[in-house]
Design brief:
The structure holds 3 protein chains of 3 kinds. Chain A is built from 8 helices and 10 strands. Chain A is α/β, with parallel strands linked by helices. The two termini of chain B are 27 Å apart. Classes of the chains: A alpha/beta, B mainly alpha, C mainly alpha.
Chain lengths: 232, 230, 250
């Protein structure tokens, strides 16, 4: 069995500016494969920006970021096939059914055996009976569950999750856990507003404030007070 | 699992666009109704029961051009509202696939529009009755012009959807850029709809239209990435 | 970035003087030295203002397109500033060409506007197109996207200009014989001297104004950056929406 020594995610002086303001400034870290990076910080601190740069939706203004050894700027192609992104938008068309939405995403990712895969993920989150209903008839929790399906459909090695438990009740949260939680065994970058829950879920904690890394340590060594300080 | 080819991805996006329009048919219906109403407006504004030659060509092409503005404005709205653009950007596909798909979608809408609007025009306002041969030549001009409108429309639509004044910017940008299409199409169509029986199709105008389509097609292909990538 | 102010500020005075001298000489030559055209009379002399304005504005638009290509290739916002300045100045020159063209039409053919003068019509279309440049910029808030989209527009519009001229010219069955179609070849000698002097003068005017505006913008950017360094981030004035590209001097 080959041991993977290369880190899954490497950030080196990553900077992203919006006009004159820096959304991210000089963030550097390494994340090993299979580990979870949990990102804390007040609104506007740069959490979503960080995820979007890793997802190749935004280009770094300076510095570099690489996922699974591929630079996001130069090898965007290679990165995209291997990541699953769950942002604030579900990225689903309300007028299409759940199955149609997933089929579309499957085609965009060149997925073979799409039909079985779609049936599997829908069953995993408990939406199999609503597969042929249009998404605009779904409740918010159901939309979020479907968005999780979309994110993991192509079996990505890295998950980028922006507040994944939003709109999910505890039962639904349990359903998505094997797909996007610790149990999934994938490398994950998760943003969180919940200090206790977030620290429990992560291996490494990153605290952002005004775009800068105010805190970077193994999650076990971080206290909830330190997280709270970020918000002051 | 392998990354889909550009054409394969374009086909997927194109199929989705058509599916969306079938589910919630807004754009096509609006464009068709708009054309019909415009004919009525022309009837009253020109105070004529029938038109021929240059006048007929003018009425037809003004109507088609203005109706296409509706289609151009709506082309990227669903992507912006429902995050369709991001979904595409997250996929390991060439960005040109989006350009191909959107231009093909707009072209399809225009063709579908004209299948109704042109016979309607013949019914309501056109004086002379064209022969089958004339219809075929007219179809060729329509196709060439539609291709130009589709390419320029996709570019303008992609630009306009990111601005705060989408509908204004659409008209302001698209109309001057489409003028060569209007010139070429109108000048080609006029002799076909002449009262004295259809004349010959002047060969220079289809060439101009074809050249326009080619140049803007290449330009759009070269520049589209800069519009969608952040 | 102290060097940037120097780059655009030097030679401005010399350039301005040269412009003034040459342009005045050109107008004087046009008014007094060049012969009065037989059928059109003294008012034909507007040609010496109209054509240089037209040529310089077209060159300005093309130059704006080239700077836009540079901007997209390198991402350097200074190219965007060059493009922006060139285009909105060319727009003013284009408006001038339209107005003087209209005056000439009145003098030559008795009407303030003629549709069968394809070049004039093409200029009208070009004017209408480029007039949307600034509203387009203003309607996009994100400065980076604004620059990028403006550059795409500048390139498309720049490619459109020759297409437009060709299409309009083809659409026109009659071409009035006129002095406009001269590239110096059909002009008699004394007219040629006056014309070229005016052309060079107008070109210099464009360049001087362009450099002046670039220097002004760069200086303002430096001032802003210095102010920001002296104050904390919160106290720095928030920039409102603007159509002009914003330079960030480090």
């Amino acid at each position: 069995m080959a041991t993977v020594t290369e880190p899954a995610i490497v950030l080196d002086g990553l900077t992203r500016r919006y006009g004159e303001r820096p959304a991210l400034e000089d963030v550097s870290l390494e994340l090993a494969a299979g580990q979870t990076l949990v990102v804390f910080g007040p609104n506007g601190a740069g959490k979503s920006t960080l995820l979007r740069v890793l997802a190749t939706l935004l280009r770094p203004s300076a510095g570099s970021a690489s996922v699974l050894g591929h630079d996001v700027r130069r090898d965007g192609w290679a990165v995209r096939g291997r990541i699953g992104f769950l942002g604030h938008d579900a990225l689903l068309h309300g007028d299409l059914t759940a199955a149609e939405n997933l089929a579309y995403h499957a085609r965009l990712h060149g997925l073979d055996g799409a039909r079985e895969r779609i049936a599997d993920v829908l069953a995993a989150v408990g939406l199999e009976r609503r597969a042929d209903d249009r998404v605009h008839t779904y409740s918010r929790g159901m939309v979020q569950r479907l968005a999780v399906c979309r994110a993991v459909l192509h079996d990505p090695q890295v998950l980028l999750l922006d507040e994944p438990r939003a709109n999910l009740d505890p039962a639904a949260s349990e359903l998505v856990d094997p797909l996007i939680g610790r149990a999934s065994g994938r490398t994950r970058v998760v943003t969180s507003h919940d200090p206790a829950g977030g620290l429990a879920e992560g291996d490494v904690a990153l605290g952002l404030r005004a775009g800068r890394a105010a805190l970077l340590a193994p999650a076990a060594d971080v206290t909830t007070e330190q997280i709270g300080d970020l918000y002051r | 699992m392998s990354a889909p080819s550009t054409l394969g991805a374009a086909r997927a996006v194109f199929a989705k666009e058509l599916l969306l329009e079938r589910r919630a048919p807004q754009t096509l219906i609006a464009m068709t109704l708009f054309s019909a109403t415009t004919y009525v407006v022309f009837h009253f504004a020109l105070n004529r029961d029938s038109v021929a030659g240059n006048l007929a060509s003018g009425v037809l092409w003004v109507t088609i051009t203005l109706a296409s503005l509706l289609g151009i404005g709506r082309l990227f709205v669903s992507d912006r509202d429902e995050g369709g653009l991001e979904a595409f950007l997250l996929a390991p596909v060439d960005r040109s696939a989006l350009l191909l798909a959107k231009a093909a979608a707009l072209l399809s809408f225009l063709i579908a529009l004209e299948l109704v609007a042109v016979p309607l025009f013949a019914l309501l306002l056109l004086g002379p009755t064209p022969s089958v041969g004339t219809w075929l030549r007219l179809a060729l001009i329509l196709l060439l012009a539609d291709a130009g409108i589709a390419v320029v429309g996709t570019l303008v639509g992609a630009i306009a959807v990111q601005t705060r004044a989408r509908d204004l910017i659409t008209s302001l940008l698209a109309l001057p850029l489409l003028l060569p299409v209007v010139i070429g199409a109108a000048r080609s169509t006029a002799p076909l709809l002449s009262e004295l029986g259809a004349g010959t199709l002047p060969s220079r105008w289809p060439v101009v239209l074809g050249l326009y389509d080619l140049i803007f097609g290449l330009l759009a292909y070269a520049l589209f990435d800069y519009l969608v990538e952040d | 970035m102290p060097t940037s102010a120097k780059l655009y500020g030097t030679r401005l005075r010399g350039l301005a003087i040269a412009t003034f001298v040459i342009l005045t000489a050109g107008f004087a030559l046009a008014a007094f030295y060049a012969p009065i055209e037989a059928d059109q009379g003294f008012s034909q002399k507007i040609f010496y203002v109209h054509v240089p304005l037209a040529i310089v504005s077209l060159c300005g638009f093309i130059f704006g397109g080239i700077c836009a290509i540079q901007h997209l290739r390198t991402g350097d916002p200074r190219h965007d500033l060059r493009s922006y300045t060139a285009i909105h100045q060319s727009l003013i020159f284009c408006a001038g060409a339209l107005v003087t063209g209209s005056i000439w039409a009145k003098a030559a053919w008795g009407q303030w506007w003629v549709w069968d003068e394809p070049t004039l019509v093409s200029f009208l279309i070009v004017f209408l197109l480029y007039a949307t440049y600034q509203p387009l910029r203003f309607s996009i808030e994100d400065p980076e996207r604004q620059s990028r989209y403006a550059s795409v527009f500048a390139i498309v519009a720049g490619a459109f200009v020759p297409l437009n001229f060709a299409a309009v010219r083809l659409a026109n069955p009659l071409i009035h014989p006129r002095v406009l179609n001269s590239s110096g070849g059909s002009l008699p000698n004394d007219m040629r001297v006056a014309f070229y002097t005016c052309l060079v003068g107008m070109g210099l005017l464009f360049i001087t104004l362009w450099k002046y505006e670039m220097a002004s913008k760069h200086t303002r950017a430096q001032l802003r950056s210095l102010r920001r360094k002296l104050q904390s981030d919160d106290q720095a004035p928030v920039q409102g929406r603007s159509a002009a590209p914003r330079l960030t001097a480090p």
